[in-house]
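Replying to the earlier thread about multi-chain prediction with a worked example.

Input:
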Amino acid sequence: MKNLSINRNRKLNTANFIRIGDISFFEGPLLSLFEELNSGHLYVFDWVDRDKKHNKWLIYRVLPKVLLQYLNKKISHFDLFNNRAESSTYYTDIDYRNQAFYNYDALELTQIPEDYLPNQDNFFEPEDCPALNRIKVVIMASLSKQKMANEYSNDANVPKLILEKPNVDVFNKISWEESTYRVKANTSVYIIPTSISYNSYTNTKNGPINLYEKFDKTRKLYANQYS
Amino acid sequence: MTIKKLKYQRFLEQFPNCPSEEFTEVEKDAYRWVHHPIEAVDFLPVNIISEPPPRMLNDSDKMCMGYGLSMFDTFENALAKYKKIFRRMRLHQKQHFKEDKGTYVALLELNKDDGIADTPKEKNYGHFTFHEYEDANLQENMKDLFEIFKDDEEFVN
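Result:
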């Protein structure tokens, strides 16, 4: 693998990343989409290299509208990378033990090897994307959230949905990723007390609950109050 | 009647409905990317190969299909899928792809005693997954071997 120029002091915290789905898949992920739970920012893990013991992934933030352009074949993989939301690009090496991605450091690259740049003539192939519908739902939610953020600016008083990844399995037979996906997709999730909170509100009720609905109601109340 | 055991049963048992009911015994020709001469990894599922390690980001990648062998229904489809993936790769990844997958396509005769397969997916170049039975030795079923490249970079057609 290439020798990389890295900044060891700049780490990307991937602990609150949830996996949305693979944008490109063959015998394993090649390009995979993640959402940072609290910011709602979208990141991709882009497989760029391997040796006998590791797989290397570039990690970069993408804008939902740019990702949508890529999915609509308007721009190439190279353009998706080139128009990333922030110039900061990270990498992670996942070793042969294949623990979950968040167990490995994601460090900032100070220089991106030319060999790691995607090909200019690579365009999205829907048949390689097993999770296209789910990815599109998340992009639409992200675009709508962006619109909402523009409407209410960055006022710190606007209620924010804050999800914290629990240390224990608090959900009823569904994974944390599925639970958070359901919350974001505005469908109900069955949770055990104190597993999810937004602002000072913490759920203390067993059973199915639609957290997004409650969050949205608070947001609208706030909007009416200040409009 | 003897119950046939799958070669990677202990791994497959970790997944619900694995392999699914869609998988049945088959008697047909199949095409698989291999090295020439044949290497041990040519008939190993990706999740069993340790060097290089399988591409995984979390446990959701430890999928049932990762313990089966990728095959294609025709030589043309096997070649077309290889070309498609190869062309999308970065230069150094192309070299790795050749090292990992080989540069030949083997014609294999699959029999009912060899294992079970799902239906070839028309939208995915006739790709199907094959789960071998414990005693299967697919290398013995190889009927022919075709080159993928004319020379180092150019495909045969």
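The first strand of chain B starts at residue 24 and ends at 25.

Feel free to reuse this layout for your own posts.
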